[in-house]
């Protein structure tokens, strides 16, 4: 069974719903299995007010992604809402922390796609998709060392 990782961040639920639909589509393909995961929120220290969020359990939606999910997947679908023409900070923070997976070549040669949602017509959807593709191009194009 080819496991396809559907990794997303969603603040308002729209991208989560899109990720669920992507996962449903994957499940319709014979021999494919969707693995739905999310990334933790990024909360500035000034907002924590002495209490850190539980890093292990999301409030709702899929479980948090782990490095093993990247290593085990046969492909990846990456989703994020648009934030000023860029991916949301939690997705960027997660991708910025995948250097060890890059060194291992965990995603090298694996197929990937990106998806986004925004609340406005000219919200920067195209540039958001490009911003999500750049780290994937580095990960996917990485030859094993």
Q: How much beta, percentage-wise?
A: 15-25%
* Helical content class: 25-40%
Q: Which residues form runs of ≥5 with pLDDT under 50?
A: none
What's the mean pLDDT score? Answer: 89
Order of helices and strands: EHEHHEEHHEH
Largest sheet: 5 strands, mixed
The count of DSSP E runs of length 2 or more, i.e. the number of strands, is 5
For the termini, the CA-CA separation is: 26 Å
Radius of gyration: 15 Å
The 3D shape can be described as globular
SS-derived structural category: alpha/beta
Tell me the number of helical segments per DSSP (H or I, 4 or more residues long): 6
Give the helix/strand layout:
Blueprint: E1 2-8, H1 14-27, E2 32-38, H2 45-48, H3 67-72, E3 75-83, E4 86-87, H4 89-96, H5 99-104, E5 112-117, H6 125-140
Parallel strand pairs: 1-2, 1-3, 3-5
Antiparallel strand pairs: 3-4
Describe the structure in your own words.
It is a single chain. The chain is built from six helices and five strands. The chain is of the alpha/beta class and 145 residues long. Strands 1, 2, 3, 4 and 5 form a five-stranded mixed β-sheet that branches. The relative contact order is 0.19. The mean pLDDT is 89.
Compose a concise summary of this entry:
With 145 residues, the chain is an alpha/beta fold. The protein has six helices and five strands, in the order βαβααββααβα. The mean pLDDT is 89.
């Amino acid at each position: 069974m080819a496991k396809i990782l559907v990794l997303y961040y969603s603040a308002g639920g729209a991208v989560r719903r899109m990720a669920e639909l992507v996962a449903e589509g994957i499940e319709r393909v014979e021999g494919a299995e969707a693995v739905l995961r999310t990334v933790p929120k990024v909360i500035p220290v000034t907002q924590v007010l002495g209490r850190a969020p539980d890093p292990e359990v999301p409030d709702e939606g899929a479980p948090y992604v782990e490095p093993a999910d990247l290593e085990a997947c046969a492909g990846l679908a990456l989703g994020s809402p648009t934030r000023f023409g860029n991916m949301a900070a939690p997705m960027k923070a997660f991708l910025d922390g995948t250097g060890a997976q890059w060194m291992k070549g965990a995603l090298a040669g694996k197929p990937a796609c990106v998806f986004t949602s925004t609340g406005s017509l000219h919200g920067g959807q195209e540039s958001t998709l490009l911003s999500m593709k750049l780290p994937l191009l580095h990960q996917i194009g990485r030859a094993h060392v």
